[in-house]
């Protein structure tokens, strides 16, 4: 009698594991497709790589400031690297990822 009980539990656990694998695969595929949908413009990626002087796949404020030093906006004003960095650093970790760099910046809270 206990043997049937044990085999029943084992069967149920195998079924749960199979469904878990399917769910995990679905989540991973969904995440991957979302990343593909957010492909980065090659020009933006090249600019990011140029600014990332130490090639650590992140831009810090010093790198951004050095890149924009002496450069002007279309309206003739100097670039404010600190303001731009603060706007784009969505997770406030002191580094801009490629995705943060190409995004417009943080949304204003209403």
Written description of the protein model:
By secondary structure, the protein is mostly helical. It folds into 2 domains: 1-39; 42-102, EF-hand (Recoverin, domain 1, Orthogonal Bundle). Helix content is 61%, strand content 0%. The protein has helices at 2-37, 42-51, 61-68, 81-88, 98-102. It is rod-shaped, with a radius of gyration of 24 Å. The chain starts with a helix and ends in an 8-residue tail after the last helix.
List keywords for this structure.
mainly alpha, Recoverin, domain 1, 2 domains, EF-hand domain-containing protein
Summarize the structure.
The protein has 110 residues and is mostly helical. It has five helices and no strands.
Secondary structure elements and pairings:
Blueprint: H1 2-37, H2 42-51, H3 61-68, H4 81-88, H5 98-102
Share of β-strand residues: under 5%
At the fourth CATH level, what is the homologous superfamily of the largest domain? Answer: EF-hand
Number of domain modules:
2
Shape descriptor reads rod-shaped
So how many helices? 5
Rg, rounded, reads 24 Å
Order of helices and strands: HHHHH
Second-tier CATH architecture of the largest domain:
Orthogonal Bundle
Q: Calculate the mean pLDDT score and round it.
A: 82
Low-confidence stretches: none
Distance between the termini: 64 Å
Structural class: mainly alpha
Largest sheet: none
As a percent range, the share of helical residues equals 55-70%
State the total count of DSSP E strands.
Answer: 0
CATH topology group of the largest domain: Recoverin, domain 1
For the record, the CATH class of the largest domain is Mainly Alpha
GO molecular function: calcium ion binding
Signal peptide: 1-37
Organism: Aquimarina algicola
Domain EF-hand: 39-74
């Amino acid at each position: 009698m206990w043997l049937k009980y044990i085999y029943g539990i084992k069967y149920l656990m195998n079924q749960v594991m199979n469904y878990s694998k399917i769910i995990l695969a679905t989540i991973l595929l969904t995440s991957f497709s979302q990343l593909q949908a957010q492909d980065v413009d090659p020009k933006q990626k090249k600019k990011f790589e140029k600014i990332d002087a130490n090639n650590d796949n992140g831009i810090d404020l010093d790198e951004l400031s050095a890149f924009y030093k002496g450069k002007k906006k279309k309206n003739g004003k100097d670039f404010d690297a600190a303001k731009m960095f603060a706007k784009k650093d969505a997770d406030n970790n002191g580094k801009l990822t490629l995705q943060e760099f190409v995004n417009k910046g943080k949304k204003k809270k209403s």
